[in-house]
Amino acid sequence: MNLMKHQIPGPKSAEILANSARFEPPCMADQVPAVWDHAEDVWIYDVDGNKYLDFTSGVLVANVGHSHPDHVAAIRQQAGRLMNCYSFPTPERVRLSERLVGMLPENLDRVFMLTTGAEATEAAIRIAKRFSGKHEVLAFYGAFHGRTYGPMSVAGSANTRRKFGPSVPGGILAPYGYCYRCVYDKKFPECEFHCIKALDRVVEAASSGDLGTVITEPYQGGAGFINPPPGWLKELERWAKERGLLLIVDEVQSGFGRTGKFLAIEWEEVMPQMVCIGKGIGSGMPASALAGESRIFDCMKPGEMSSTTGGNPLASAAALAVIDIMEKEHLPENARVMGAYLLQRLGELKDRYECIGDARGMGLALGLEIVESKQTKKPAVAMTQKIILGAAQYGLMMGKVGFYGNVIRVAPPLTIKQPECDHAIAILDKVLSEI
């Protein structure tokens, strides 16, 4: 395959990036130095006319692809009618809530529409504390639930919490099911979920006796697309239930078809008391939701929680269109099939290149962990950045995540087809061979 290199940044991108440096703070995300201009399905075009295959989905947002015609049409139609009305009900919002309840586990019979993933997890934590009457929340190393203070207090990443002063009291952290770098130096399945069994000891040491809630992600996106071993989430559900704890599952990244089912909890038939949904629900429009049981929402009086733009008719119409597109085009199934194919091809690269320590994931939420060698597993952060920039020069847009910044995110829109997967693998193969 003849692959042509892009100049990154191109002259127009460089000019806009210079203005960004003048007028915007440097704390925003560290990405490939290219300025996006427009996008269509799985393809991105920058302001210099360079074309990229998108393996970011705009950070797991564009689940139905960029600028899907049906999605765009729904947004345009609604924009001409009504865009926001604070917390007054609209047909769009109520219809969306009804559609979501019909797609959720049967115990989740209410939906609270919001705007961002952090807003959804923030609301979940607040409501859980009110309902349980207990202020402590158990979370996990590597967890990312948002950047506001409630979610930050249960973040397992120093990058989220560092030098912000004391967080909200009550956050307790325990090791996640990260088998590639097991904190306990165990091997699955021989360990028999040692990390779950060890939770009692963690709580005994860190809790004041006021633990009421557990919050987790089905896979940890920000920590590096870490998938716990099969059955881990079900074991956690059992552990929480036996101790009378509420279980919140944060599906902001993993939901809306990303893992091959509507929600990742469906893989193990987990039934949490609350689920946070975001990102893919709007496929580019700011939208999120907190789904929960009626008995839990009933602890809040009318008007005690609201959101200025949460569930606005524009975002609700967009989300309804996303559901229609997902069902019509069988996108969760495509994510499952294409994800399995991509993981197989990434595994072939892993076998050939010493720097790929692990290729992992489910559906179209995959990660490549880059290391100095397979034996030492030492994170190769500089090499990770070289691979990402090299891939972009050949027309493949990716990003990095992880504890150490050494995991490459492989998360294309759910509309991707096999020829596009093969194109991406060819680019990665070329870049790896050069590096």
Description of the structure:
This protein is α/β, with parallel strands linked by helices and 435 residues long. It folds into two domains: 155 residues, Aspartate Aminotransferase, domain 1, CATH 3.90.1150; 259 residues, Aspartate Aminotransferase, domain 2, CATH 3.40.640.10. Helix content is 37%, strand content 16%. The protein contains 15 helices and 15 strands. It has a seven-stranded mixed beta sheet with strand order 4-10-9-8-7-5-6, sandwiched between helices. A hairpin with a 4-residue loop joins strand 2 and strand 3. Helix 3 packs antiparallel against helix 12, helix 4 runs parallel beside helix 12 and helix 13 runs parallel beside helix 15. The longest helix has 22 residues. The protein is globular, with a radius of gyration of 21 Å. The mean pLDDT is 95.
In short:
The protein has 435 residues and is of the alpha/beta class.
